[in-house]
């Protein structure tokens, strides 16, 4: 199955021959529209090619500049349904969040392992959702979740998006679970942006610094900020999913704190699978505690 997210990322940097896309063009167009891309096409030497141009990044307000204190947890790549999904580790992190007074948890994609039409080892669709429900309902936190490439595989097989379904179920359980139908989302916290993204890493030798490379790309595209009603909000946090390595670093040149939470697959053998982040924002500058 073609990785739809990887295809989309490639098409932002180059023109792709329509014959090389290997997914129905309508699925690609729907995906691009939902993720705020403008679709360009051209025909040269009787070959039709497509290119994607990002027009905007969706934005959601959590708290304005009147608040200075922030506390949130970054997690990603749970892969619920994977044979090596570490449920105990995920529960430990969520329990710690509750016991330590954290309220917000951001999930940067790949909540679910996904499904495939030729792989019987995958946990069934309904079972993955029920397992996720059984975990999240036990920890009354506010969750903010986006898609990952594995989550998109459900839609490519004409199944309803599982995160959207999970949101409906958990809200009925009284859990503040919020799903955003995109793989890139800006959240405004204390007057600055926390950007959450599920990237497709394209250089495996540089996975620990891939987020910095992505920040540089946003800077070159003049998208290291977002504008709403005439006001500019800078990106001060950048959470990256898909990398499967736990990293926290500060990119001083652009004043961006980068968080790669890692994954909850046991084979990745990480001690840390979540990043707990807190501090203050003063005059759009972040001070970590």
What number of domains? Answer: 2
CATH class value of the largest domain = Alpha Beta
Coarse morphology: globular
Tell me what the CATH architecture of the largest domain is.
Answer: 4-Layer Sandwich
| Rg, Å, rounded | 19 Å
Distance N terminus to C terminus? 44 Å
Give the fraction of residues assigned to helices: 10-25%
Instruction: Give the rounded overall mean pLDDT.
Output: 91
User: H/E series, N to C?
Assistant: HEHEEEEHEHEHHEEEHEEEEEE
Classify the beta-strand content into a percent band: 25-35%
Count every helix, treating DSSP H or I runs of 4 or more residues as helices.
Answer: 7
CATH topology of the largest domain: Purple Acid Phosphatase, chain A, domain 2
Describe this structure in words.
The protein is built from seven helices and 16 strands. It has 289 residues and is of the alpha/beta class. The protein folds into two domains: 4-54; 59-288, Purple Acid Phosphatase, chain A, domain 2. The strands form three sheets. Strands 4, 9, 10, 11, 12, 13 and 14 form a seven-stranded mixed β-sheet that branches. A hairpin with a 2-residue loop joins strand 15 (275-282) and strand 16. Helix 4 crosses helix 6. It starts with a helix and ends with a strand. The mean pLDDT is 91.
């Amino acid at each position: 199955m073609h990785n739809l997210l990887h295809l989309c990322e490639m098409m932002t940097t180059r023109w792709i021959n329509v014959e090389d896309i290997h997914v129905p063009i309508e699925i690609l167009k729907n995906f691009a529209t939902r993720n705020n891309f403008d679709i360009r096409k051209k025909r040269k030497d009787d070959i039709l090619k497509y290119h994607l141009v990002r027009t905007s990044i969706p934005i959601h307000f959590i708290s304005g500049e009147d608040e200075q204190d922030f506390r949130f947890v970054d997690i990603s790549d749970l892969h619920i349904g994977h044979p090596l999904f570490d449920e105990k580790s995920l529960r430990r992190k969520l329990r710690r969040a509750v016991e330590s007074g954290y309220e917000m948890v951001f999930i940067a994609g790949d909540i679910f392992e996904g499904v495939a039409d030729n792989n019987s080892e995958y946990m069934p669709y309904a079972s993955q959702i029920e397992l996720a429900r059984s975990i999240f309902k036990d920890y009354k936190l506010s969750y903010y979740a986006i898609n990952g490439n594995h989550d998109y595989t459900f839609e490519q097989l004409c199944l309803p998006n599982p995160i959207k379904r999970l949101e409906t179920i958990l809200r009925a359980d009284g859990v503040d679970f919020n799903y955003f139908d995109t793989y890139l989302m800006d959240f405004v916290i204390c007057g600055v942006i926390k950007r959450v993204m599920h990237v497709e890493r394209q250089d495996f030798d540089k996975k620990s610094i891939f987020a910095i490379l992505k920040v540089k790309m946003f800077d070159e595209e003049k998208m290291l900020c977002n504008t709403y009603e005439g006001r500019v909000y800078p990106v001060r946090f950048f959470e990256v999913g898909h990398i499967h390595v736990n990293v926290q670093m500060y990119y001083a040149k652009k004043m961006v704190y980068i968080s790669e939470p890692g994954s909850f697959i046991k084979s990745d053998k990480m001690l840390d699978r979540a990043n707990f982040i807190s501090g203050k924002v003063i005059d759009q500058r972040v001070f970590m505690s």
